[in-house]
Amino acid sequence: MSNLLEVDHAAPPEPGTPERQGRGGTARLKRRRRALLFGILALVLMVPGSVGAYLYTLAHVYDSQTVTLQDAFPPEAVRIQAPEVPAGVATALNILVLGSDSRDASAGAGAKAAAGTASNQRSDTLMLVHIPADRSQIYSISLMRDLWVTIPDHGEAKINAALAYGGVPLVVQTVESLLQQRIDQVVSIDFAGFKALVDALGGVKVDVKVPFTAVRATSSYVFKEGPNTLNGAKALAFVRERYAFADGDYQRVRNQQLLLKAVMAKTFDTGALRNPATLQKVLSSVSPYLSVAPALDPVEAGRLAFSLRDVQSQDAVAFTLPTAGIGTSADGQSIVLPDWAAIEEIKAALSGDRLGDYAAAKSLGNGN
After folding, report:
1. Is residue 24 classed exposed, middle or buried when 0-12, 13-18 and 19+ CB atoms within 10 A define those classes?
2. Is 322:346 a contact under the CB 8 Å cutoff?
3. Above 50 in pLDDT, residue 4?
4. pTM
């Protein structure tokens, strides 16, 4: 079965190609076609009929509940070009993950950002997920929300302002320009999706490094040093909090990375997703909070998941894009200064698909 999947190198739809036009008849027809394609894939793989029906159901859940970012990418003329590789040769994959908090979004802000227009929305969490060509590991690079960078056509600003200035396409263009890497896929998740995911998994265990009390949560949550078992609500408070820490957003990013590792441990190491009922529950719970680029349809998502079937939590490395401390902009804003020398090293490692070597040399297995 793996050979059949691995030799299927059909090109995904071009980034930015509209796949869903609203919620009308055309959208429903295209969703059915993609779900049918997933079912056909299952038949081609000669799996039992019950398994094929199950895969069809998963594809339908994913496709009917996620939102497509129809204009996720900027015009091709302003993008970093993909490296040329021989046909059929596996390549590394870069996925831009945006996390936003619906508490801070005004009515319609999310839709404007998805459409590539200006809004008052900011991206609270920004990560580049890098998956090497051999699919042996997963690297997550967090970009600080106040990182002072050049936003194309807007000058210098905090990186999280890109979403407000030009929606998701401008975020993609900004990150591509910063790291000189082409973004292959885009996933946006509402913070409430973390809550749904943790609850669907039956809770996760997080090894808290810095104890704190969530001072701005709707309920009071105390996080003690050491192992803490979190349900969805407590996990949401854990990734939201930044005011309780002396270094503010730095520790919040570390906590987000800790939760990500905990979710991966529960997902991969315990075999939770090998349980059909759990997998369907997780997908049904999280999909409503996901927005994805058109190319990440059910077939491509399934193919990616299958390619990562041997990854364990110890194969996931999460760290923060190096910074040079806190500064002040010319107009008086508190900003995070990039460590340009270190970023150059990361750019080179990404370009050579050698991020694992960089992470090992910098001892980033436990974050930074």
Report:
1. exposed
2. yes
3. no
4. 0.82
